[in-house]
Amino acid sequence: MKKEIRFCLDKMHEMFPEAACELNHENPFELLVAVVLSAQCTDNLVNKVTKELFQKYKKPEDYVAVPLEALQQDIRSIGLYRNKAKNIQKLSQSLLDRYNGDVPRTKEQLMELAGVGRKTANVVASVAFGEPAIAVDTHVERVSKRLGICRWKDSVNEVEQTLMRKVPKDEWSDTHHLMIFFGRYHCKSRNPNCPECPLLQLCREGQKRMKKRDAANTAVLK
DNA sequence: AACTCGGGGCA
DNA sequence: TGCCCAGAGTT
């Protein structure tokens, strides 16, 4: 089983040798804000907004100091901007209250912060601090289920547990980014692109889809 | 487990 | 136009 995972990761790496976190990860606080903003919206758009945002806001104090409406206006081109502005202010306040304005390292500490859930906590912990964590987003979940690494009915939590069990610990962070790229550019939710997939031979969903396609083709020929 | 927030991108 | 997107909180 682990051998198959190894094969998948190697092939994904061949397809996307540049796969890495596209968000700024030099500054943990900026990474945290960027990941919060990125929920349900493309990273392209997030990058556009954060470019100006990070010129204006440097530290948690800066986000807390402005009226909520001002911050909302500054991120208005992003979806869910009202909630996100609120969350960032609450988040900044709790960083000031509990960590003197610094960003904590572990995913447990991060997840306790306002507006920070499981995925955000895992991304920040692993990317900014090198903590062992696998962030499971929609791409990672879909790819894992299609390949057969986990079961269709598994919850996000179960997917994460399974991946942590099957993937060597020192590759958790890479695995996340590889699956993101693979899911976004190849194994898309609508179009998995199975006929041109290097993982087809061992992919559960791919085999099923190809079999179905072959059946449809032979039916047409008759 | 389902619902809500939400503007931009893409077909 | 209609559908989807590097999610989290509430019910």
Automatic annotation (TrEMBL):
Residues 37-185 form the HhH-GPD domain. It comes from the Bacteria. This is Endonuclease III. Belongs to the Nth/MutY family. SMART domains: ENDO3c, FES. InterPro entries: DNA_glycosylase (IPR011257), Endonuclease-III-like_CS2 (IPR004036), Endonuclease3_FeS-loop_motif (IPR003651), HhH-GPD_domain (IPR003265), HhH_base_excis_C (IPR023170), HhH_motif (IPR000445), Nth (IPR005759). It catalyses: 2'-deoxyribonucleotide-(2'-deoxyribose 5'-phosphate)-2'-deoxyribonucleotide-DNA = a 3'-end 2'-deoxyribonucleotide-(2,3-dehydro-2,3-deoxyribose 5'-phosphate)-DNA + a 5'-end 5'-phospho-2'-deoxyribonucleoside-DNA + H(+). CDD domains: ENDO3c. The gene is nth. Keywords: 4Fe-4S, DNA damage, DNA repair, DNA-binding, Endonuclease, Glycosidase, Hydrolase, Iron, Iron-sulfur, Lyase, Metal-binding, Nuclease.
